[in-house]
Amino acid sequence: MGSYIQKYRIFVSDRVINFSENESWTPLVGRIVLRGPRIPDLHRWLKKLEQDNTIREISVHVEDPQTFFQDFVRSMKGIQAAGGVVECGGKALFIYRFGRWDLPKGKMEPGESPGQTALREVEEECGVGQLELKGRFSDTWHIYLFEGQHVVKQTSWFGMSTCYRGIPRPQVEEGIEKVAWIEPSAWNRVVIPHTYPSLLPLLKEAKLWILQKTGVENP
Question: pTM value?
Fold first, then answer.
């Protein structure tokens, strides 16, 4: 388990802004490449991204992507959230909400650590207890509009295990229709076509972790 922030990637709905060093690139339909922009320049492109559905990716090339990424994040209001990939018997716990498969997560409350938030949210959204933190995955980042302002949400993700044998209970008041244990071999067929693009990098990490944890070689 590593830190996905090293990829310097922020999602805007189903589109993405990637940050990297100056490098060669291949023209692609729907990709905008910005070389050495300033933070205000990127905010202008962020507005264009929202207005133009043909733009699928903004690729930002700068000398120091880590610093630029951090400065861009600090230029907006920040929200912190946390969630979990819960493993039991080689399967992971998913929630189904708004027509998509997702992982349990939620905003941090005052005084909570990310790990405490993740444990609380999993138990609240799925009705599953006896959870243990087993490690941390890479964070995910997304930008959304709230009251006319851009907000960036950082979600910390944790690997968890449980020996809970009860029936999961979806938190219906949060719009969750069902909770299901799904094995990694079914993700490509069941989960991937009906989930959020921002979850795909995390699911790659989670799949490898579960397969290694259960002793499966050459996943």
Answer: 0.90
Q: Give yes or no for a contact between 13 and 196, defined as CB atoms under 8 angstroms apart.
A: no
User: Domain range holding 193?
Assistant: 78-213
pLDDT given at position 50: 87
Q: Which token pair is 51? A: 């207005």
Could you tell me where the beta strands, DSSP code E, fall in the chain?
9-12, 15-20, 31-35, 57-61, 77-88, 91-97, 100-102, 105-107, 131-136, 140-146, 149-162, 176-182
Q: Are residues 82 and 70 in the same domain?
A: no
* Structure confidence by residue, pLDDT tens digits, 183-195: 999 999 999 999 9
Alpha helices by DSSP H, listed for the chain, are: 39-51, 65-74, 114-126, 200-213
How many domains are there within the chain?
2
The answer to whether 139 and 199 have CB atoms below 8 angstroms apart is no
- 89 and 24 assigned to the same domain: no
Q: Which of 74, 90, 113 is the last residue before a domain boundary? A: 74
